[in-house]
Structures are given as structure tokens and as C-alpha cells.
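<goal> How does this chain fold?
<body> The protein record starts here
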Amino acid sequence: MKEKLVDLFEYTYHFNKEMITVISENFEKVDEKTISLMNHTLNAQQIWNSRILGEKSFEVWQINPFENLNEINHQNFQKSIQIIENFDLDQRIEYQNSRGTKFENSIFEMLFQAMNHSTYHRGQINSLLKQNGIDPLLTDYIFYKR
């Protein structure tokens, strides 16, 4: 199970990086919503990692300097892998969401949410890229594995 999760986070890291590159190469064409969603995608993974590790987290919709996005993506990847390698994935963690509501989920559920959430928003970003005349990326998992 752990090696499959590592593979999914490698996929997430790879396509987050590719998406940042496409945005960077077409920066004059992208809109604020695209930048906001790319930040949100990275922020969410950082937040889930932070909940598991008991660290300070980003704000859900904070806008980071664009030049920092690759480093944030890299840090997110490293921390997610650290969690997978060093924690019991069945362990349950209590946390508060951004509205202050308390929840409890397993580490596996939290990590899967972070990865799945990234996939969802990359799809939205691709739609925005296309609307702005930029070729969207083929980010399907099967293309990554081919």
C-alpha cells in the first residue's frame, strides 16, 4: 500500500511541476483564477501534511509568490513521502478544518484527499488554460504511467 501511495504522490508532484511550467511559459495569457487555483492546489497538500505532522499550515486561498511554487511543490512532495514512510496509515488524526470544525480521519484518508484534490484542480486549471488559448496538459494517470 505504501509504495502505491508513493507512486501517486510522484504522479501528483510531476504534474503539479508540469502545470507550473506551462503557467510560467504563458504567464501573460493566464488569468488570476488560474494562479489562484494553482496556489490553492499546493496550499491544500501543504495543509493536509501539516495537519498530520502538527505543523503550521498555509491559508487555503493564500497567494504565494509565483517563483516559490516549484519549491512549495517539492516540499509538499518530500513531506508526503516522509509521512508515508514513517507513519501508520491507519492512525487517526484529529484536526480542525479552515472554518474551525473538528474532524478525525486516518492518515491514509487525509493523504488520499490531498492527492485526489490536486487531480481535481489540475483539471480545472486545464480548462482555464484552454479558455485562454493555451494547450492543456494531458495529466491522466495512465499517460504518466505509459
Remarks:
- The chain is about 65% helix and 5% strand.
